[in-house]
Amino acid sequence: MHTIKKRIIMTFLMAAMLVGGLTGLDGTYYESRSGQQEGQGVQKAAAAGKSTMKVHYIDVGQGSAVLVQSGVHFMLIDGGDSDASSKVVSYLKRQKVKKLDYVVVSHYDSDHLNGVVGALNVFKVKRVIAPAYTADSRVYESYCNIIAQKKIATTRPKVGKKYKLGKARFTILAPNSSGYVDENNYSIALKLVNGKNRFVITGDAETESEYEMVENGQNLSCDVYMAGHHGSANSSSQKLLQAMKPKYTVISCGADNNYGHPAQSAMSRLKAIGTKIFRTDAQGTIVATSNGSRIKWNKSPSKLWSYREYGSSTLIGADGSESQISGDDTSGSDNTASSAPALANGQKYIGNVNSKKFHLPSCNGLPYEKNRAYFDSIDAAHQAGYSPCGLCRPEG
């Protein structure tokens, strides 16, 4: 009787796996393909000596940080903002990181770069891959200083260039050109490959860069996509999604962000292609483990398809209902995009004479003093030809 029960249980488990996924008693979610093909795939991967690759989408709030591990080899892609820098360093230490083979700086926005500076200070780094433009900010200056101080080799991205990470590899997908007006499009995009499993990460690349990736003719198909620019309206274009056809999408954004991440339009496009989603704002750190044929997750896919509108941290469901994951209670307060943050007496908006962006005095992306212009009001900044910073959102 005991043997019969065991056979029934095993039959049930195998049936569940064939359907397309199974959540174990420990909360682990297993991706699956079809029966014999799946078994053969695992056997072939083992025979070929394929190592396990882990991709850690670290919860850094409103920002991005990804740790990739293949055997004893590690790569860090971005590091979150200043408030997450120590968290990223602690997380890497818990994963037994001693040395980073690669650090990829997708671009120089503070919510990607600050934590990189922290990691560069703490760990030995073999090579940094970073885009070929400069930024006029304090965090970028700190980044350049630590690179020079530790004499870390730095490489500019070249589309199509392949790198090895243990038994895994990755290929540069973007940027495909230069002279972008929006610096987000300088973001380094890459495709990670471990056996038959493929992961695409695009930083904050927006539609212009996404279209270039598709038109460049590279194979963009993947199992896992990290939603571009935290799920913003200007990323995850239909053209890119159709080229990738990801089974899973990971969205890294802050639970209390008021940038409109993830946006309704992006969530609609993702839902339309049938991808399963994971969200750091609702689920914390997401870890995908690839054995070269199958992907195992530390969480089950999220059922939360809610989105945010710009200027509010409130989540809006498909039925129009509103909710909060976490963060400050905004009930009864005016959080619309037209409500600009108030400046203290004597403070002024700070413009960057090079980028023609204006900032709040508290922004992490302020330019050097020699490159500043000061404005008493938002109207004055607009009249001088300046547009609002996308990080500090001086217009609310």
From TrEMBL:
<dbReference type="InterPro" id="IPR001279">
    <property type="entry name" value="Metallo-B-lactamas"/>
</dbReference>
<feature type="region of interest" description="Disordered">
    <location>
        <begin position="318"/>
        <end position="340"/>
    </location>
</feature>
<dbReference type="InterPro" id="IPR035451">
    <property type="entry name" value="Ada-like_dom_sf"/>
</dbReference>
<dbReference type="Pfam" id="PF02805">
    <property type="entry name" value="Ada_Zn_binding"/>
</dbReference>
<dbReference type="Pfam" id="PF00753">
    <property type="entry name" value="Lactamase_B"/>
</dbReference>
<dbReference type="InterPro" id="IPR004026">
    <property type="entry name" value="Ada_DNA_repair_Zn-bd"/>
</dbReference>
<keyword id="KW-0010">Activator</keyword>
<protein>
    <submittedName>
        <fullName>MBL fold metallo-hydrolase</fullName>
    </submittedName>
</protein>
<feature type="compositionally biased region" description="Polar residues">
    <location>
        <begin position="318"/>
        <end position="339"/>
    </location>
</feature>
<dbReference type="InterPro" id="IPR052159">
    <property type="entry name" value="Competence_DNA_uptake"/>
</dbReference>
<dbReference type="InterPro" id="IPR035681">
    <property type="entry name" value="ComA-like_MBL"/>
</dbReference>
<feature type="domain" description="Metallo-beta-lactamase">
    <location>
        <begin position="62"/>
        <end position="255"/>
    </location>
</feature>
<dbReference type="InterPro" id="IPR036866">
    <property type="entry name" value="RibonucZ/Hydroxyglut_hydro"/>
</dbReference>
